[in-house]
């Protein structure tokens, strides 16, 4: 695993950035070298490694996924007007909004071109799942935007949004790795499903940690989602389970301006407790994770071959940051 | 030709836009149905028709080009803060900047996916020239931005910028049409070169008309490039040919704040006259056009087969709007 991560970092560092025109490629190199967990390329290489040992052959697909993911971060940060990413100023802050648009567009194109360099028999299928996934991620982002101005987002709507915004790219990473290795079509599909499930679990974990994580480990302050009124699994579940009275109290706490931040977070967390939300969220994560394990266990490969993928998923989900 | 244009409009109208999420696809349908000359898809279908009669087979490639071109318009209008396009409010005006970013990204992805639907043996080559061209267009846009803050842009730098920003996409359109028809590699390359040349001529014509066109026909007021200090073929040539005194006068007129708009335009046009710029621009357009005709004449196909492409290029260039 460590080995894979090193190889990914090395490959990212050796990407060739044209020197000119000035100002186009610097932000791309900047964001790609700023760090991150490299989850998507790792998943692609792990899926490939289920079938073959020469994982460098899947590296173009792996890099394409990481370039694409960073394109979404760049444009999302612009749209969210975020100041910091991985402890560094965001591209539109360090440069400007126009640079963020154009360098971001260039990254999307570079991601396609990198994926096209994958040397495999099923490149067309590989490109198709990649491109379809990209469009789904845009759809997820649009749902996320639309949800900001709504108080009636259902849990199912929320789950579909995060499936599109987060899960399908993890699923796609696994499928691209499998396709690059010329895995059987049924395997590629099962790995896709595995990715969707761990992606959902991963995002619910994120929602959970935002309220109940250890701030020292989690790396951001607690309750941020509550303060910006984000429709999370916790909030949509709470609103759906609340009595009319609790529903009104919850909306008052989330949208109210008569409470300071600390009091607002405290009030919402009290209501979450009353409604058993932390437990429900925890259970849902466990259910998704065990469903994912079942899918992986059914993949017709020797257990020891699948161990690294199990381990990675477990580390992703038991993570505290 | 009329026939091709009708077919393109019909195909654009029958594009399938998902109904959800709300707000993502409406701006895409809006900009794609707002009109335009459909030059790029027409060039693709004309190139295809040099070799085969069933031009509908090249329609996915043609539509991909038009979707991509409109993606660039959408994001360029956002970056330029433009209010109007084809007589209608731009997407970021009618909706907002974030919508322009995200719907624009989606169009770039849709363009790729549409190009992938082209049914031909050389799809990989077709996708490669398309993706490479997209990246070059981003580079051209970045050069254009960089030139805004420079007074020392050479004519050659300017020509390279418009080659990237405008010409390569026309060239790519012709090459994609040829590849879709399985034309010989040498032919595809010659058509690419033909596209580059008419693209350059087309852009110089645009520069020329901005100063010397009939505003009633040209559709915008005269001298807009002068007022915003745009580095055009006219200005870069003038600055390069000017005596030190004329050079200073020209920069004073372009950058000066002591002249009203009418006086500024008049002064710059006087200096252009002194330096013989209109004539030089006209000659350069003629040279490029006749070079383009030579390239096309050398394409080993019957003359009557090539006539529609000649005619289209001539109409593009002798156009007064």
Plain-language structure description:
Two copies of one chain form a homodimer. Chain A is an all-alpha fold and 321 residues long. Chain A has one domain: Farnesyl Diphosphate Synthase, CATH 1.10.600. Chain A has helices spanning 2-13, 26-32, 39-49, 59-80, 91-94, 97-116, 123-148, 155-180, 185-212, 215-218, 224-227, 233-241, 244-255, 261-274, 277-297, 303-318; strands at residues 84-85, 88-89. In chain A, strand 1 and strand 2 form a beta hairpin. In chain A, helix 4 packs antiparallel against helix 8 (155-180), helix 7 (123-148) packs antiparallel against helix 8 (155-180) and helix 8 (155-180) packs across helix 9. Chain A is globular and about 60 Å long. The A-B interface holds A 18, 20-24, 75, 78-79, 97-98, 101-102, 104-106, 108-110, 112-113, 116, 123-124, 127-128, 131-132, 134-135, 138-139, 141-143, 145-146 and B 18, 20-24, 75, 78-79, 97-98, 101-102, 104-106, 108-110, 112-113, 116, 123-124, 127-128, 131-132, 134-135, 138-139, 141-143, 145-146.
